[in-house]
Each structure stands twice: as C-alpha cells, then as structure tokens.
Amino acid sequence: MAVEVLAEEFPWLRLLPADDLPQFVSDFVTATRISADLGQWSVLAQTLREWKATAAVYTDPALVRELTEPLSDDHGPVPGPTEA
C-alpha cells in the first residue's frame, strides 16, 4: 500500500523491479525520519536521487545486463586516490 501512495508522488517507482520496492520504502522511511530528526532534508533528497537513478537504469536493458553480469576479467589493482 505504501508503494501505491509513494508511486503517485514518484511515478518512476513503477520502473523498479517489484523485489526492490520494499527496500525503497524502508530507505524512504529511514531517510525521512533521519531528515526530520536532524532538520536536514538533504538526507531524504539524496536517497530519492539515488533511487531515481536506479530506476533510470532499468529503462535500458543493455545497461541492466552490463551492470548485473558477473565480472570475468581482472583489470588489475585499483590505484589509490593519490595515484589516479
């Protein structure tokens, strides 16, 4: 029921797989409570930005495939932040 109500405000929720929706609701509630407690709504804004970006990925099947396939190549060690 929460998803239906939230989908009215955030229609991009319909792009997410059904299995991801409970996690979205949990993240949304947690971020809302933290934001309200701190008086800093940037926490909720960031959560919504991240989930909206995830929903956007699901509009491109090739990108979903690329991001969910296991990695098969070893690209060597990852350089540290000062080495990049």
Question: What is the residue-averaged pLDDT?
Answer: 92
Largest sheet: none
Shape: flat
* Rg measurement, Å: 17 Å
How many domains?
Answer: 1
Strand content: under 5%
Give unreliable regions as ranges.
Answer: none
Summing up helix and strand content along with how strands pair, one would put the structural category as: mainly alpha
- Number of continuous helical runs: 4
Layout of secondary structure:
Blueprint (H helix, E strand, L loop, with lengths): L1 H8 L11 H18 L3 H16 L3 H8 L16
Helix pairs in contact: 2-3
Please give a structural write-up.
- It is built from 4 helices and no strands.
- The protein is mainly α and 84 residues long.
- The protein has one domain (2-66).
Could you list some keywords that capture this structure?
single chain; 84 residues; mainly alpha; 4 helices; flat
Provide a short characterization of the protein structure.
It is built from 4 helices and no strands.
